[in-house]
Amino acid sequence: MITLSDSHCKVGTFNTTGKKYRGHYSIWTTNTLQERLLYLHDRFINPCEIKGWINGNLYIQTEERLGILPLPEDVRRSSGMASIIPILTPNTLIVTLPVCKEH
Known about the structure:
Blueprint: H1 6-10, H2 27-39, H3 73-78
């Protein structure tokens, strides 16, 4: 029994540009293929290149850290921003409902 994932069924379908998709849906497969083509570049005659692809494996992770600075309470309130919810996890669902003001 052979099962195909959705990505296998999408190959050759039209994308948003109106052209057929050419390539692989796996980032890791494309990265590996590009690395091997670069390594073997001198061994091929007229080697093909994967253009327009940014291979994340070729970069070193930075030590720089980014964060969000807290706003002063008066700025937060005057901007109409919600207050901070201190305990958030990736699985936390936040639902905000509009408040109807009576006339």
